[in-house]
Design a protein that fits this description.
Structural class: alpha+beta
Helix content: 25-40%
Number of helices: 6
Strand content: 5-15%
Shape: globular
Oligomer: single chain
Number of strands: 5
Bound molecules: zinc ion
Radius of gyration: 16 Å
Distance between the termini: 13 Å
Largest sheet: 3 strands, antiparallel
Strand order of the largest sheet: 2-4-3
């Protein structure tokens, strides 16, 4: 949200949209509506963390090279750990959002199924989460 122009957006950024840069695309769309990226505040909600999110080479190869050092960790046994929060943070800052303006819940949905749902961990039994954003006056 840009506090001056009041442009707000909610974006779902699972791995496919995250590797494709949906967070940056959202900032670009907001800028087209008058927001200034340097004033945007961004919040990254609870997300499956790198502690629980193993991905294969087919996913790792789609992570932008500039983000790999922060968003990917290669496992000794093969495969990778993907940090979706770090990847989305990378996209946001590359779109001009100051690092200090990007907030993160910092919680792993798969580690905390008492608080959140995780389809990856719980499969079809998982409930659904929703995000709500409101414009306050
Ligand atoms: Zn975890």
């Amino acid at each position: 949200m840009d506090r001056v122009t009041q442009v707000i957006a909610v974006v779902h950024a699972g791995w496919r949209p995250a590797v494709a840069g949906i967070a940056a695309r959202a900032v670009e769309k907001m800028a087209a509506l008058g927001a200034i990226p340097g004033r945007v505040l961004a919040a990254i909600g609870p997300v499956i963390g790198p502690c629980c999110y193993r991905v294969g080479e087919e996913v790792a190869a789609r992570v932008p090279p500039g983000a790999r050092s922060t968003a990917l960790k290669k496992e000794e046994t093969g495969g990778f750990r993907l940090d979706l929060g770090a990847l989305n943070r990378w996209w946001l800052t590359n779109a001009g959002v100051p690092e200090k303006n990007v907030f993160s819940a910092g919680e792993c949905t798969a580690c905390k199924t008492d608080l959140y749902y995780s389809y990856r961990k719980e499969g079809d039994r998982a409930g659904r989460m929703m995000a709500v954003i409101a414009r306050l006056r």
